[in-house]
Amino acid sequence: MSHFLERVLVWAERQLPESRRMWISDLRMEAAHISGRIARQRFLWSGVLAALSEILRARIGVQRVGQTLLGLAVLTFCLGGLVVGPNIGNKVVEQTLYSVLPVYGLTGGLALLNLKWMRRFAALCIGAMGLFWLISGLELFTSMDAPVYFFRAFAVEVAMIMTGLFIAASYLGWVGDAEPA
Amino acid sequence: MTRTRKPSSSTLKILNCLSGSPGGLHGYALMKASGLASGTLYPILGRLSDRGWLEKAWQTGEDISGPPRRIYTLTPVGRAQFNDLTENYPLQSLETRTAQ
Fold it and tell me: pLDDT tens digit string along A141-161?
């Protein structure tokens, strides 16, 4: 196992520019001085994980990795909604869920493609949901024969999820701008 | 636009361990002393060396067998930076273990 881990480290070293790979050779040489198979393997495993994440950072960038994960998470959430939808057993809830899934789908797609546009879209959705919540609170609508309270609660939930996504996108944008520590 | 961040607690731990070892420490001893994993420790050592805060030297002498071994010591610049940092970010919360 130690031999395999060392080979992964050698491979990782070749993938990185000179300025970012010096520590890997130091780590490999230090590993040869560690007595005990388990201790040496733990030492190497930790180094391998760090080297692989360094390659991801160097080749793709922290922001790109983050926004891909965020986009995939939102799209998986949508897929989950599609799977769960037919089993809800309540037409109103089912249709409401289906009406917001395209919104989440578009947010996930934008997260993958363009973080800035995703933030704008999330802000737009938060505003729209807030407006819907305010307008649907008017007596004209609350007195209607429709589950208005459910729709309002659903709007709040969508707005909260969109706020979370907005914060995540803002954080990723900040990470992209900031220097490595 | 670039921004400077507060140094991580791992960075402060490493500097703290090295400041108490004028003769320097090799990577494994530093790992034990700081309680950090090798995957956390070595990239930080690389960055600190690039900034000129650390000096890397090969261990010499007859007591070493196998491939060469790096010894890390704080440079005067690194020591000055560490002193500045400890004024702004106290080390009270850091749990460091004594090197064996």
Answer: 777 777 888 888 989 999 999
Nearest residue on chain B to A30, alpha-carbon basis: B69
Q: Which residue in B has a C-alpha nearest to residue A22's C-alpha?
A: B46
ipTM for the complex shown? 0.79
* Closest in B2, B8, B39 to A47, CB measured: B39
- Contacts of residue A136, defined as CB under 8 A and 6 or more positions apart, other chains included, come to A142, A148, A151, A152, A155
pTM for this predicted structure: 0.62
Quote the domain boundaries for residue A82: 62-177
Dihedral in degrees, nearest 10, Cα atoms A128, A147, A165, A114: -60
CATH (residue range B9-88): 1.10.10.10
User: Does A112 lie in the same domain as A47?
Assistant: no
